[in-house]
Amino acid sequence: xxxxxxxxxxxxxxxxxxxxxxxxxxxxxxxxxxxxxxxxxxxxxxxxxxxxxxxxxxxxxxxxxxxxxxxxxxxxxxxxxxxxxxxxxxxxxxxxxxxxxxxxxxxxxxxxxxxxxxxxxxxxxxxxxxxxxxxxxxxxxxxxxxxxxxxxxxxxxxxxxxxxxxxxxxxxxxxxxxxxxxxxxxxxxxxxxxxxxxxxxxxxxxxxxxxxxxxxxxxxxxxxxxxxxxxxxxxxxxxxxxxxxxxxxxxxxxxxxxxxxxxxxxxxxxxxxxxxxxxxxxxxxxxxxxxxxxxxxxxxxxxxxxxxxxxxxxxxxxxxxxxxxxxxxxxxxxxx
Length: 336
Hints:
Pfam family, one: Rieske
Number of helices: 6
Distance between the termini: 28 Å
Number of strands: 17
Largest sheet: 8 strands, antiparallel
Domain Rieske: 53-142
Keywords: 2Fe-2S, Iron, Iron-sulfur, Metal-binding, Oxidoreductase
InterPro entries: Cholesterol_7-desaturase, DUF5914, Rieske_2Fe-2S, Rieske_2Fe-2S_sf
Organism: Streptomyces javensis
C-alpha cells in the first residue's frame, strides 16, 4: 500500500496507518530489484572521482588529549588538532622505531610518542610527513594519494547537508568483512527495506529508478518510518551515489524534510584470514521546520545514543547483507 503523500502543514508528524498488511502479505519487490539495475548504478558510482579522500570518523571523536587512530586501506593513520585547533593527520607509525602513535598522547597540540618522546606538531619532522586532512564539522577525512591513485583535490566533495549549527547530528560506525562496493550496493537496493527491516520501515514503494544517463543515480522512495504500533511517519526520500564509497539519502517531503543520512564505506585492510574489512561511517544530519525541534537539538547529548542505537540495529542486518554479498562474490556464486 502506497503511503499518503505527507503534508508540510500537518500539525502532527505521525499518521495512523490504515489497513496495515502483514509482513508476509506485502507486495513482493524482487522483480523490481533487478540485479542489472543495481549493478549499473554501482558501476557508475565507482567511476566517479573522489580526489583520494577517505572518511575516517566523526569530528566529535577528536579529543584534546589523544589522537584519533584509524587504518585506511592498510595504512595506519593518526589525527589530532594542533595548537591552532587545525586538524592534522599523518602516518600512525613513529619514524624513530615504529611505535604505534595511536597509543601516544597529545599535549598542547603536539603528539608525543610514548616510547622515546619524539614530538610531532603537525609539520614534517624526523621523517614523519603529514597527510592532507579535512574536518567538515560532522566528519573528518584524510587524503591518501598512495592509495587512491586519482587526481588529488584540495578538499573532499562533501555532500550537501543542513548546516550543523541548526541540525541534530549523530555518527555511527561499524565494521564488516566485505568491500566498500558491497556496502554501496546495499544502499543502492532500496527495495529490501520493508522486507529486511520491518521493525523500521513499512509501505515502501520505489517511485523512480535511475536510467543509464542519470548522472546522480537517484532512487526516489516513498516509505513510512515506524514509530509505535500503527503510528508511522510517511516521507519521500531520494538516494544518490556521489562517489564510489558514498551513498546519500535525503528526505525531500514529509517530516524532517531536508534531513540527510550519509553512508560512507572506508576500506580498512585485510583481517588475519586475508579477508577485506570495511568500516561503515554513517552520519545522520537531521533537521525540521517544527518549533519543537530546537528543544530536540538542546537534548542532543541524550538523543545521539538513541540515533546510533537505531542505526546499529539497521546495520546489523545490512552488514550481514554486505558480508553475504562479498562471500558469494569471492566464491564466484553471486547471482547478480
